[in-house]
């Protein structure tokens, strides 16, 4: 195809040619029967934190390609994994329907550069019956990117900088792409709970 000459196709997980997402990477991202797993980030948000897997291999490559290289075609396979994980959490009774997925906040400048917030796009693509999506959180202006910050710097960077657009009633699941120290998630949970939301858990596509 002419489009492939301009934008050559390669797997977003391993770089294999002639495909956007290869069967091997799809298998690596598939949610097994014992996932998502409970993790313990450095900062405890006070709710269960679960992850689909380590921030490595095809998972890491896909997240980076989506966020930093505009690979919006990877929202699909990532949303399949998130949707399976949400179903698993409902089956396990960790969250209950009706459920609202709230994406973790991102810088508006980053979202604009990426053509929108990819975590919100994943949440919307993954939402099924009795699961809604509400991007109710935002970051205050001039919040720094967390990449390259030490754990203590990450905490200071988001303290008081997660803002709530409006209250979110009912059961809430906080969704993030990568959990490193848990600083953003902890602040997001605090803000939601202060406004009266019932945050049941936090789900990450990957954890460092």
Automatic annotation (TrEMBL):
InterPro entries membership: ComF/GntX_DNA_util-trans (IPR051910), PRTase-like (IPR029057), PRTase_dom (IPR000836)
Gene3D superfamilies per record: 3.40.50.2020
Family note: Belongs to the ComF/GntX family.
Identification of the protein by name: Phosphoribosyltransferase
Organism: Mycolicibacterium madagascariense
